[in-house]
Structures are given as structure tokens and as C-alpha cells.
Amino acid sequence: MVEGANVQVTITATTGRPDDAAASQVRGLAARAHEVDGVAPLSEQPLLRLADAAAPVVHLTARTPAGELVGYAQVDTETASAELVVDPAHRRRGTGRALLDAARTHTATATGTGLKVWAHGDLPAARAFAAMTGLVVVRELRKLRLDLASRTDATRRPLPAGTTLRAFVPGQDEEAWRRVNARAFAHHPEQGRLTVADVQAREREPWFDPEGFLLAERDGVLVGSVWTKVHPAGTEADEPVGEIYVVGVDPDAQGTGLGGALTSAGLDHLASRGLATVVLYVDADNTAAVRTYDAQGFVRAATDVMLASDTEGSPTGATMGS
To answer: Whole-prediction pTM value?
Structure first.
């Protein structure tokens, strides 16, 4: 039990799929924090894993004696990473530190390595918490934004000769896409680990649209893809916002301009949906991707950081959405 200012909380660790009531409480907690902070505290993957009984994660909950959920952390025991959130009405009472300490314990037990923690939005409060708990920035994930009205013909990129595009077919293309995506993101700790089950989970999400999931083929062989997403009004802005969710190019097709062409194709699709704004996420040290998006007219809108107690370098090759 953790004691703080006028509150006592108990940290409980569980694995497997939380029951529907517990999962709903976590989503509600995340929504309250999002409303106060202006930034979602949990990314897409932890939220999806609330419904995944086989996910390699530990769920940590902080509850008051009355059973109220005031804090939550999810630890990925394969990547030794975590995301956590504390109810805005219960902050600065030791709950965040207690969740972090518990997450560190479970990470060390499962992997023998140090814990890495995402801080979405790189907020001043998160930086202060990091300094207080001995964490430093080891990775920077940039959120870029593009006004589609600013696009010109000069920013568009054609497909390489001999390459064609078609829409993803659910029930047919999952495994082929997974193989190419794993090759494209072989050194990426999250994107390179996506499974067919992960793809199928996203297919069940309300935003999924196979027409916005474009596959590039050469001689009938998949060589790359661009997966787009549309955020409904109220999540990113007052109007719907498009996202270049994932761009992946097979290593054998890199250096041909396919990445830029796929980005252009994704932007064309989102523009056809009548959207005004598009966002995407990319690791700061992925210089090739950053150059591609600079050329398309993207500008930095926000930053997420990964915090750790060591000096591990950040991985490369990321263009992965929220």
C-alpha cells in the first residue's frame, strides 16, 4: 500500500485480459487525463491490448480503499517498456512513483533489463517526474502535421517503374503484409513485432478502411505499403484528421523512391476523403524518413519521448501511428 496526501492506494498486478468493467475504467481514466492534459496518456497499442488475453503485458492498477481506479500502467515484458497514467485529481500524491516502481520490478523480473517509459507530449510535468525518478530521454518520436491545401505538384512523387498499387484485402493479405513490414522495421521495437493478430485487431476498429490501406507490388510481389487512418472530429481537432499510419518498404526495394511515392499515394487518398489536415509519427533519428516528410511539406507539431534510467540509443526506422 502507498500512502500519500489524504489518500492510500494499493497497487495490483495482473496478466491476461482484464474484465470488461476494469478495461472500461482504464479507458475512462485515460480519457479524463487526455481532457486535462490535451494529450492522450496511452497510445493505441496499450488500449488494444486491454482486449487481448495473449498479450505479453502486465497490468498495474492503483486503487483507493473504496476501489476507485486512480492510476494504471501497462508493462510490455518483451520490450521492457511501459505507459502509465494517473488520474488528474489524484496527482502529486505518490501514485505515479508507486506505479513506476512496480513497473520496474516486473520488468527486471521478466527481462533482466531496465524499464523504458513513454511520456506522450513531452509535457513539463512528465519531465519533472522524470527528473525526480532518475529518468532521462533515450528516444524522441516526432508528430508531424501537414496542411493538405499547401501541397503542390512539386511535392508529389510517382511510383517507381513497374510498381502498382492496390487496396488491402482483409482475410487475404495479412501474412504477406506482416512479413514485409517485419523486414522493413526489423530494428524497430514496436512496429517490427506486429503480428497477424495485431493486424486483425486493427481491422475490427471503427476507423479501419481497406481502401486506405494501399499495397505496392512489383511483378505480383508485395514490396511496400502505406496504411492510412482517419481520426474522427474531437480526437485530434474539431474536424476529422487523416494520418499516415504506417509506411513500410521492403529492404530490397529501398532506394528506389518508393517510400516517397507511397507517402504521396496515402496523402492523395486522404485528400480524396475531403480532409484538410494529415499527421504522422516518425523517430527523430530516422533521417531518411524525416527528409522524405520534409520534402512533402510536413512540419513538427508535437513530440513524444521515451524515458529510461540508462543511456541506450534510440532505434531507427520508425513511421508508426498512434
So the answer is: 0.84
